[in-house]
């Protein structure tokens, strides 16, 4: 018979049907209001990702506080998804809520700096180590702008991504490797260009392929996460980051580190914790505690080359910037996040509980002899329904078990726990409690026992 992630497909289908029924019964109000689509929206949802949750219909949220979501039917969920990182520091962190309240009566956008902007500039320098910064509104845009600068200062057209990477909806990163050949990422809507013309792709951890791809000295920039968090979770092998830095330098290629997810590692992100030395740095999602904002930083060298480039180029629109970026609400909330939320104390709590959570999940997997594994980067944890560790994006693609994962997700929701959709990610925030971690471990262990039986 058909085995997925070590489990008989029939057993998965049974669990899926059983849990879908339990989910429906507990949510009559949600079902009445979202179950047939929400009026006014294409496909019944305001953002199409909302249909990608594995639940029979979207949960209608009444409120979210700390690390708990309450839905309109009165169900409470321990939230380990946390807006897929946007609320990594908890829902409406108190210092951020105070900053919003204070700024609310002082104007929300005016294309001029506020006093908070002065503070944020030096906070970014201190926390992340790069000397020059710009503000955008999404991590997607920050990556787009940083890549534009990389091309401008190197005079090179190509970029390089690792197979399985995700950096937001940046068109030119939408390349995948299939049977060793680069292709446009399957599923892209309305894309007629061959993106592989300007984007090279190699497997993460493959230094030989990386060196070969950089050899022609036509790559402006390598863009990567320190850990691949969007392809299950693939850790860098020992020495990978040192070699990546050396090879990019030798080839005159810039290195862009996207910390949007790995900011879970600790204060200053993976870059600071592990002493990386990027030319360009991007952070979005939680940098303003849940208010849309992103930051991108440049090294001294990139900044001086970009200034020279600007002096030499024809005047005109740079192709960067969006009107609402660098607004005073972003500065107020970023300042609060950088000063009062991303504290060493908060990270210590996250690290301690995340360690407990990872150990508890691994113990359940071992006890029920499932061929699965658990990975972690600081407060970010992933269980993977295949043996590990995984070495690259191709292995991660092979490890995906969508039907199994969907059934497990709904079963966890029915046991009071929400984890991120599309993959099996859990985040521990500064306000996540030991009791919530215990409940997740118990729920996961119960589901594992059901599947293994
Ligand atoms: N970079 C990384 C590493 C991401 O995981 C994501 C989103 N998951 C982004 C950038 C894009 O973030 P946003 O959708 O907020 O633009």
From TrEMBL:
Gene3D superfamilies: Aspartate Aminotransferase, domain 1, Type I PLP-dependent aspartate aminotransferase-like (Major domain). Its cofactor is pyridoxal 5'-phosphate. GO terms for molecular function: transaminase activity. Pfam families: Aminotran_3. InterPro entries: Aminotrans_3 (IPR005814), PyrdxlP-dep_Trfase (IPR015424), PyrdxlP-dep_Trfase_major (IPR015421), PyrdxlP-dep_Trfase_small (IPR015422). SUPFAM superfamilies: PLP-dependent transferases. This is Aspartate aminotransferase family protein. The lineage of its organism: Bacteria, Pseudomonadati, Pseudomonadota, Alphaproteobacteria, Hyphomicrobiales.
């Amino acid at each position: 018979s058909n085995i997925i992630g070590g489990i008989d497909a029939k057993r998965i289908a049974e669990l899926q049907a059983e849990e879908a029924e339990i989910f429906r019964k507990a949510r009559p109000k949600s079902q009445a209001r979202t179950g047939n689509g929400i009026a006014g929206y294409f496909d019944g949802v305001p953002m199409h990702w909302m249909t990608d949750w594995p639940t029979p219909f979207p949960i209608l949220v009444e409120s979210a506080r700390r690390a708990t979501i309450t839905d309109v039917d009165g169900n409470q969920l321990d939230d380990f998804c946390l807006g897929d990182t946007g609320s990594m520091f908890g829902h409406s962190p108190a210092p951020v809520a105070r900053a919003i309240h204070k700024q609310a009566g002082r104007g929300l956008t005016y294309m001029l700096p506020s006093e908070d902007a002065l503070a944020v500039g030096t906070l970014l320098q201190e926390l992340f180590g790069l000397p020059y910064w710009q503000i955008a509104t999404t991590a997607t845009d920050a990556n787009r702008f940083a890549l534009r600068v990389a091309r401008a200062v190197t005079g090179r057209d190509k970029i390089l991504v690792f197979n399985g990477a995700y950096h937001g909806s940046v068109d030119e990163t939408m390349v995948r490797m299939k049977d060793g050949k680069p292709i446009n990422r399957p599923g892209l809507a309305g894309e007629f260009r061959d993106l592989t013309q300007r984007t090279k792709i190699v497997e993460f951890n493959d230094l030989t392929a990386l060196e070969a791809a950089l050899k022609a000295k036509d790559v402006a920039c390598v863009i990567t996460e320190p850990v691949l968090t969007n392809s299950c979770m693939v850790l860098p092998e020992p020495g990978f980051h040192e070699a990546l830095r050396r090879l990019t330098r030798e080839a005159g290629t810039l290195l862009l580190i996207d910390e949007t997810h790995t900011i879970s590692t600790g204060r200053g992100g993976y870059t600071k914790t592990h002493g990386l030395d990027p030319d360009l740095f991007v952070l979005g999602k939680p940098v303003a505690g849940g208010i849309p904002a992103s930051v991108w930083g440049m090294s001294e060298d990139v900044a001086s080359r970009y200034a020279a480039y600007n002096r030499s180029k024809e005047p005109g629109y740079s192709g960067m910037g969006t009107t609402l970026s660098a607004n005073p609400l972003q500065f107020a909330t970023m300042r609060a996040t950088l000063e009062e939320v991303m504290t060493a104390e908060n990270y210590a709590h996250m690290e301690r509980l995340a360690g407990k959570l990872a150990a508890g999940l691994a113990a359940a997997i071992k006890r029920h002899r499932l061929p699965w594994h658990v990975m972690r980067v600081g407060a970010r944890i992933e269980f993977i329904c295949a043996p590990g560790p995984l070495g690259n994006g191709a292995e991660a693609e092979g490890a995906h078990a969508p039907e199994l994962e969907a059934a497990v997700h709904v079963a966890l929701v029915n046991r009071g726990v929400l984890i991120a959709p599309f993959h099996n990610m859990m985040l521990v925030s500064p306000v996540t409690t030991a009791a919530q971690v215990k409940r997740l471990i118990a729920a996961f262990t119960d589901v594992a026992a059901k599947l293994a039986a």
